[in-house]
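RECORD TYPE: inverse folding
INPUT: structure tokens
STRUCTURE:
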């Protein structure tokens, strides 16, 4: 059954508003967040394989956001919502504490030039806010094709006493049988690029 775009899209919150993710769905349940979901390929496959979870994809590029929202509406996906916004202020100021059971961060923009590194999403302040938003026992999964940015992210997360590294396969966000790969993962794997992965659990 096709859905209306309005059933999928959630407006970016106004300044000062803390959202209630469960209010976006018909019934409460575990809530997962994908930051920078691009065209939504991963969101679609994970949501279809796991109807009991609720997912929000955040994407700031209008073209990708529209594509992903349209895709969910046409497929009648009821457990995904899409928001067009900048993930940094959203996670830092608009998400309540302890609401995210799995945080998916796949192929974040690496901003490879050194003078642009300050534009990278994953910095200490974002890490702090993301952990605050995770439930205890929740997972943060990271995947990247960019070795240096990956090392930086893995280093920031490894240094946190409130996180413990877990095996990717044992993290509840990536059961092997429903992992179809993200759009970038599929593209880069075809090119033979190495894909780096790590997973952490909030203590
Ligand atoms: C390299 S693509 C990866 C897309 C997808 N995760 C995948 O693996 O196929 C990075 C995506 O993150 C989005 N993005 C980057 N920074 C963002 C931010 N601060 N907030 C929301 N989206 C962001 C970009 O627009 C882009 O679509």
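DESIGNED SEQUENCE:
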């Amino acid at each position: 059954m096709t859905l209306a775009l309005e059933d999928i899209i959630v407006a970016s919150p106004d300044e000062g508003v803390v959202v209630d993710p469960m209010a976006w769905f018909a019934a409460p349940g575990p809530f997962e967040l994908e930051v920078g979901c691009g065209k939504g390929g991963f969101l679609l496959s994970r949501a279809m394989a796991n109807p009991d979870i609720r997912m929000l994809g955040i994407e700031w590029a209008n073209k990708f956001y529209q594509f992903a929202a349209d895709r969910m509406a046409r497929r009648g996906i009821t457990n995904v919502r899409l928001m067009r916004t900048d993930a940094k202020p959203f996670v830092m100021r608009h998400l309540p504490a302890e609401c995210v059971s799995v945080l998916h961060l796949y192929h974040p923009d690496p901003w490879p030039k050194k003078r642009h590194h300050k534009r990278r999403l994953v910095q200490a302040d974002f890490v702090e806010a993301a952990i605050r938003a995770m439930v205890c026992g929740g997972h943060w999964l990271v995947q990247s094709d960019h070795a240096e940015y990956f090392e930086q992210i893995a280093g920031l997360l490894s240094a946190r006493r409130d996180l413990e590294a877990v095996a990717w396969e044992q993290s509840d966000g990536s059961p092997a049988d429903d992992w179809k790969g993200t759009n970038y993962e599929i593209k880069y794997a075809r090119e033979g690029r190495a894909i780096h992965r790590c997973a952490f659990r909030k203590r």
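NOTES: The beta strands are 31-35, 54-59, 80-84, 100-106, 134-144, 163-166, 196-202.
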